[in-house]
Amino acid sequence: MRSRRFQMFVSAIGLSIGLGLLAGAAADAVAQDKKTLRFIPHAGLRVTDPILTTAFMSRNHGYMIYDTLFSVDDKMQVKPQMVEKHEVSGDKLTYTFTLRDGLKFHDGAPVTSADVIASLARWGKNDTMGQKLFTYTKEWKEVDAKTFQLVLKEPYGLVLDSLGKPSSNVPFIMPARIAATPASQNVPEEIGSGPFRFIKGEFQPGVKVVYEKNPDYKPRSEPASNTSGGKVAKVDRVEWLTIADPQTAMNALLKGEVDIWEQPAFDLLPELKKSKDVDIRNLQPLGMNYMLRMNWLQPPLDNVKVRQAILHAIQQEDYLAAQVGDPEYYKVCGAIFGCSSPLATDAGAVGVKKANVAQAKKMLAESGYKGEKIVIMAPTDLNSINQLPLVTAPLIRAIGVNVEVQSMDWQTLVGRRAKMDPIDQGGWHIFHTAWGTADMMNPIANAGTKGLGKQGGFFGWTEDPVIEKLRDDYAREPDAAKQKAIAEAVQKRVYELVHYIPLGEYFQPSAIRKNVVGNLPSAAYVLWNIEKK
Amino acid sequence: MLRLVLSRLLAAIPVMGVVAIFVFLLLRLSPGDPAAILAGDTATPEIIAEIRADLGLDRPIPEQFVTWIGQLAQGDLGKSVLSKQPVTMMISQRVEPTMSLALTTLIFAIVVAVPMGILAAWKQGSWFDRGIMALSVAGFSIPVFVLGYIMVYVFSMKLDLFPAQGFASIRDGLPGFLERIALPTVTLSFIYIALFARITRTAMLEVLNEDYIRTAHAKGLKERVVLVKHALRNAAIPIVSVIGIGFALLIGGVVITETVFNIPGIGRLVVDAVLGRDYPIIQGVILVFSGVYVLINLAIDIAYVLLDPRIRY
Question: In chain A, whose CA is at the least distance from the CA of B256?
Answer without folding.
Answer: A245
